[in-house]
Amino acid sequence: MSFLDKLIHLIPSSSAHSQKENIEDFSGVKFKVLVIDFQDNIESNSGENTAKLLQTMPDFEVGFYNEPFNKTFLNLESRTLFDLIDKGQALLDQTEADILVWGCRENNKIRLNFQTAKQYEKNDATFVSLIDSLYLPADLFNHLDMFPSALKTLLHGAIISAISPKDNSERIHRKYLLKKDIAQLSSDSSAKQLAIDFMPYIMNFLGIIYLSCTYNTDELSDFKITQNLFATALKHQDLIDSPLHLGCIYYHLGQLNDCAGQYQNKHIGRFFKDAISNYRQAQRYLGKYTYPYDYGYISYQLSHLFFNYWKMKEDIQALRDSVNQMREVEKIFSVAQFPEFWAEIQGELGYLLSLLGNLTKSVDIYQLAINSYQNQQKILTEKRDPLVWASSQESIGNLHYKIGIEHASRDHLEDALECFHDALYIYENAARADKIKQLLISISRTDNELKIL
Prior knowledge:
Layout: H1 7-10, E1 31-36, H2 46-55, E2 60-65, H3 78-95, E3 99-106, E4 109-115, E5 134-137, H4 149-162, H5 168-185, H6 199-214, H7 220-235, H8 243-263, H9 268-285, H10 292-313, H11 316-332, H12 339-360, H13 363-379, H14 386-407, H15 410-429, H16 433-452
Parallel strand pairs: 1-2, 1-3
Antiparallel strand pairs: 3-4, 4-5
């Protein structure tokens, strides 16, 4: 019995979400997949053949890109990772593809990696990293008639998992396709002769597929199935040839426990602790100076975890930890390369610092919060995103007001009044009655304080 035969036990068919769904409304939904000609050290058509294989899948609109360029960055070494990301982003912009499929031969294996435009952005609705690697036998890519249906379904599921839906129709259709893939994988043992060497990589992607489908469920059985898939990958970590692949598995275990803490009704404390433990373990392999974007994105998740823990327990250290993690994120995702995400980070950091300042009554922390909100406004300007700009301006006004009260500072109170009037003008133009009412109260309160001084 091969390890894929054991999938029937790891993913019971009763838990495979194989129920029928109405897909008439989504029959026209196709995801645009671009296969980049593989890096191969022998004469091979493996990249072109992969495109042909994917063209047999009705959910994909498949293109093949074979213009020559240097692909040495596909070694996934930290010193060339930025080149890979930049080249992939250029191709995504050029072709408007939903996803790129990169391929690289390593001895008798083909390593596949998947890149999307929003892979390291807040609004990336997937669990897949660029460095998540799916290894498959190289021979199969030159003999498509020998390609097992189980591996074909796995490849389909891996690509679907990595695609970030652009709208609700794509999100619903994507989940339906993942359910179909899980149902098929739970009963298909066609890849009986696959060597054990592929076990950790395949189990990692099976875990991703299941997590992508069930992350927001409150069914503990779904959590346990996904956990078993990643645990099976870890049991065979002696077959993993690079620490980065081990880091990816721990990363996904962190994501799994993180989601369970949000959607499960029981054992929230345990899920919280396990998520932090797995995320930190992942960062041991995906270091700040080796794989900074993955490290930074994990820090982003950790910041949210600590913040949620602070809300539950009112433990000020958890809030400090949340701020510290967001500071780490700020160092990695620069304004030049990730302007939208950087602006989001600044807004969140401003909010966290304002909360911490309120608890500690620290003017220095209040000022740091003001700086962060002002940084956000450099990207989300009054003209570009007036409502977000106004919200930040109102927050800055509140911070100046608090400093003014704490230190009886007329200058800060006047700054607060100016900020409130700026925000009020935007909200009046947007006819936001609720915000207008709140700002009129803030303006009146500030005026009264100025009269007292």
